[in-house]
Amino acid sequence: MNINSIKIGVLGIGYVGLPLSLSFAKKYELVAYDSNQTRIEELKKNIDSNLEFSKKKFIKIKKNIVFTNKKNDLKNCNIYIITVPTPINRNKKPDLKFLKIANNIVGKFLNKNDIVVYESTVYPGLTEEFCIPYLEKYSKLKCKINNNLQKKK
Ligand SMILES: NC(=O)c1ccc[n+]([C@@H]2O[C@H](COP(=O)([O-])OP(=O)(O)OC[C@H]3O[C@@H](n4cnc5c(N)ncnc54)[C@H](O)[C@@H]3O)[C@@H](O)[C@H]2O)c1
Known about the structure:
By secondary structure, the protein is of the alpha/beta class. The chain has a single domain, classed as NAD(P)-binding Rossmann-like Domain (Rossmann fold, 3-Layer(aba) Sandwich). Helix content is 36%, strand content 14%. Strands 3-2-1-4-5 form a five-stranded parallel β-sheet, sandwiched between helices. Strand 4 (79-82), helix 4 (97-109) and strand 5 form a beta-alpha-beta unit. The longest helix is centred in the last third of the chain and has 14 residues, at 126-139. It starts with 6 loop residues before the first strand and ends with a helix. Residues 11-17, 33-36, 39, 83-86, 98, 101-102, 119-121 line the site of nicotinamide-adenine-dinucleotide (NAD).
């Protein structure tokens, strides 16, 4: 991937996604997508209801960011970072519904050689067993898993 053509899409602009987006936007073009319309409307007005960023600091570093709740705005990204919630439910099992939706969105826009990064908390094996099948289903691409990395351990 050519460094000059990098366009990052972040899904989930909360406690993890906002600082991450503002950091990467210092160098790269970035689409910050959240499904919560109120959150996006506030961010567009430089308001962070999580109180991690003051208005002033915010304005300084957000020039490369598009805040959006429209999935289609993620279309031309080539690096996707997923930071949606994975809360524990009543049975102490992680609720994966947000992750499923995020993978489906990314899968629809994914092209060969694109990169997908998971910042959401996941248990070992979940990326291969749960996330990749959704990416493959919607992108019609095939993920090659590098087993050599695992064997070397
Ligand atoms: N990797 C790390 O270092 C690290 C650190 C802390 C937390 N986490 C994990 O990161 C994840 C996010 O944590 P958080 O504290 O930022 O949560 P948060 O609730 O502050 O933010 C999540 C955001 O995702 C949005 N969202 C939900 N579903 C979505 C979807 N399908 N598409 C787009 N946006 C969607 C929500 O509206 C919310 O704004 C959790 O799984 C958490 O455990 C990771």
